[in-house]
Write the structure tokens for this entry.
Amino acid sequence: MSARAFLSLGGNLGDRRATIEGALAALDRGGATVVRRSAFYETAPWGKTDQPDFLNIVVEVRTDLLPHDLLALCRRVEQAFGRTRAERWGPRTLDVDILLYDAAVLAGPELILPHPHLTERRFVLEPLLELEPHAALPDGRPLRPFLQAVSGQVVRRLPDGEGARGPR
């Protein structure tokens, strides 16, 4: 059984682009094959705003991993790239979030699907809708109207070629 999932990757410490590229390769090796990827987006911090800007990307992956196993892979990749969880929404080398996993709806202590802040974050919605213009929540609600609601959040799509390599 191959599942389709969308992941968000971002970071604001160190060589952000190299970290994300390395994380994508590690996800591939771990069983989450990157099928498509958005452009890179530079974004103002969300939640805790007194920190450097983030570089973000959304990728579509195919995987045989179950949702909790995919989460475990994401956390291993974060840790491999120096992620520490010292401060909520604080600066980090890498953050890897599962946004959507097929039409799964989960509400557990470790994993909530779809991602609980998916509809509140332009830095996630914009690249996700770049990849999947008609993306919807598992209950069928389209995501595009949520993007309009967060249009005031600062997000800048980087020009093609500025940090974009690999499968598109």
Remarks:
- The CA atoms of residues 69 and 117 lie 21 Å apart.
- The first helix runs from residue 16 to 30.
- The chain has four helices and eight strands.
